[in-house]
């Protein structure tokens, strides 16, 4: 262990304390001051890399991680793992991510986090057999790696070929030592296989138990969905308060170069939003077939930038936020002309988006309400989206979403295009060209072959979008009519005045 002087030890304690408090810019500066004087501190280089990644200082984070390796950090496989996450999730350089994971495994062939991430990367790339082989390798190393079992089940084409995995999932769920978090993953996987076998009552039971276990896994840390609080948030957005306050004619154009337009050397965003499971991934992959469009996926640029500041109503602050967003877009996609920002919950930020980019066109993905809500209930989402863990809470959230979108469409009119998933899978040759015309992009029928693209897909729809277009998911809720009767009645009731 390195011996530190009193002044360096004090500076290290300050940096560590700022890091614990999530005061990220201050913690970065503290580590940088320390490392300017003590560049031999491998752990501090590692911590600096972690912080820089959180601040989206990605090139700097990669360099800091490399410094940690150069200094001989203990457990270098973890450093390569972290570098791979930057390449895969932020820079969209899948080959570089794979290289880092292979380096981690060369150092430690039994390193389960690297095996898990490599299998996940292979799933993103549609390399089903390789992903499945890695999950089996993990289970051979550790039969108690229940996450690998769940993910192996999720790679299986539907309907499942035999009962082996279903029995394995049920056996694991019957094991009293399995954690609640693992039970949630196993239950969602079991529900998927049973749904594929048309055993709908058993599938719904498995999904319901998975949602209960997901909620219970957080214990006292779980924050329940607040219906009244969410209604108040929607009321405030509709009233035009807070950061989203804007009149249609009052948006300030961003200044990124001469004149009042986005600089020619920077990509332009195409915003795709709507409820989860409403066809946004399918829509993005369709658009990414155009040579000028890159699929950005569920970008976190706006949430990260907003967390770093309080947006003032002044034009200079709006311009800075817009410019910072475009800089992140250009960093991740330097050669793109257009990039899709497919974060579904951006429907909550459309007022802000139109303030930042008054010329922005919004693609709003829609789908049958009951199918959408049921698909969310069947999806293993982060528990911070706590509405997704209860079917009636999903219904409430959906009604509030519908209310807000009606407001945005009244405000922004022709700038929002409703792209109907159900119509698209039914009539792709007529529905798709309308979307491209709305965006001012040339249409070619070959764009419908997006399942053959080989592009990375980082959502729960990773396997669905690699299939030829089908209608199996349209009308899915009818198979669960008995279980969702209360939800159907609730969604059909007119909202209270």
Question: How would you describe the overall organization of this protein?
Answer:
55% of the residues lie in helices and 5% in strands. The chain has helices at residues 6-20, 24-37, 42-54, 58-70, 76-90, 94-107, 112-124, 128-141, 146-154, 164-173, 180-196, 200-216, 227-239, 280-287, 301-307, 315-332, 350-356, 369-377, 391-412, 421-426, 428-439, 485-492; strands spanning 268-274, 293-295, 338-341, 362-366, 416-420. Strands 2-3-1-4-5 form a five-stranded parallel β-sheet, with helices on both faces. Helix 11 (180-196) runs antiparallel to helix 12.
TL;DR of this structure?
This protein is mostly helical and 497 residues long. The protein has 22 helices and five strands. The chain has a domain at 255-492: P-loop containing nucleotide triphosphate hydrolases (Rossmann fold, 3-Layer(aba) Sandwich), CATH 3.40.50.
